[in-house]
């Protein structure tokens, strides 16, 4: 299939990727063993067999369990480097990755341990391959505003390494407005702002993200399509949607890849991009997401190019760097 070959060969960016969601079972077992941590599953196969989700929470329960074997700086380095090597081989030239500090702080793993491991891997990827990156610290929305503020405080010595803040974890019941003040403080520190919205949550959560929080991007945004006025507003403000096709399928946000709305988003003039979210859990990295769209929808070459281009323009690269990639 020439479109598949083309999508593999295109230079791509990844704008929606949770580093803890790149934890492949084999690597998880290896790190568990060297750290003397017991996993709930006794074999790689048993763990993989558990990757059957009916909604976001099903997945999150396993995701937080999986990350619990990460204890030392080298663990964060190895996890990040394995991901970067993988996507380098897929012609990804720029990544903007989330990490979930609270998922590690709660287990006694210090902020500096986490960020040093991740940052050093990002730096090494740039030295080795010229792959550029941004790092986004994500607040866990099922936790309190106070906990998010504590996390922001811990991040202050490392602001030179952090480009923005995000909002993830269990969406329904935890609207963006719960974190308005944390986002305001983050912005005043010079951080960019994005949020998961409209993955499972209603269009109103997307409205809150764009009108109250003032996000520069929307992570997922699928349910924005239920509200015509919202669609027009996202379009007018030129906000990028970081869409995650295989994630949407695995978490039952869509029932069939044939029904995936990404072509509809493009047709509406929305700035959609392709991303892998948590590739180790959802059955594929960047190229697998494109391949699945090509196999299951009648997506055209022009649409594929548009998606890749949107990934450049919607990134947080400097404008002159974007121009170099286009
Ligand atoms: N954490 C990791 N992946 C996530 C997703 N897709 N939605 C919300 N929180 C997440
Ligand atoms: Zn996500």
TrEMBL record:
It catalyses: adenine + H2O + H(+) = hypoxanthine + NH4(+). Substrate binds at residue 278. It comes from Marinomonas pontica. It holds the Pfam family A_deaminase. This is Adenine deaminase. Keywords: Hydrolase, Metal-binding, Nucleotide metabolism, Zinc. The record marks 220 as: Important for catalytic activity. Residues 11-326 form the Adenosine deaminase domain.
């Amino acid at each position: 299939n020439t479109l598949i070959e083309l999508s593999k060969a295109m230079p791509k960016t990844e704008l929606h990727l949770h580093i803890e969601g790149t934890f492949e079972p084999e690597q998880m077992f290896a790190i568990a063993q060297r750290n003397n941590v017991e996993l709930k599953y006794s074999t790689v196969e048993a763990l993989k067999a558990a990757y059957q989700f009916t909604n976001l929470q099903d997945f999150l329960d396993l995701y937080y369990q999986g990350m619990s074997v990460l204890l030392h700086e080298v663990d964060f380095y190895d996890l990040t480097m394995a991901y970067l090597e993988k996507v380098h081989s897929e012609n990804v030239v720029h990544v903007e990755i989330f990490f979930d500090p609270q998922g590690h702080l709660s287990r006694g793993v210090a902020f500096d341990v986490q960020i040093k491991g991740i940052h050093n891997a990002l730096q090494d990827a740039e030295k080795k391959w010229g792959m550029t990156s941004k790092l986004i610290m994500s607040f866990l929305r099922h936790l309190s505003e106070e906990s998010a503020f504590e996390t922001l405080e811990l991040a202050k010595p490392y602001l030179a390494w952090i480009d923005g803040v995000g909002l993830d974890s269990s969406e329904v019941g935890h609207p963006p407005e719960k974190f308005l003040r944390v986002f305001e403080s983050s912005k005043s520190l010079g951080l960019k702002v994005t949020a998961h919205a409209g993955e499972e949550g209603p269009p109103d959560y997307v409205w809150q993200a764009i009108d109250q929080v003032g996000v520069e991007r929307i992570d997922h945004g699928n349910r924005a399509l239920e509200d015509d006025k919202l669609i027009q507003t996202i379009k007018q403000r030129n906000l990028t949607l970081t869409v995650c096709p295989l994630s949407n399928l695995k978490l039952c946000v869509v029932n069939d890849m044939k029904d995936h709305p990404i072509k509809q988003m493009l047709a509406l003039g929305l700035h959609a991009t392709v991303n892998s979210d948590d590739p180790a859990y959802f059955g594929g990295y960047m190229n697998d997401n494109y391949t699945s769209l090509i196999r299951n929808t009648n997506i055209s070459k022009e649409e594929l190019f548009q998606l890749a281009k949107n990934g450049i323009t919607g990134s947080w690269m400097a404008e002159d760097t974007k121009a170099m990639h286009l």
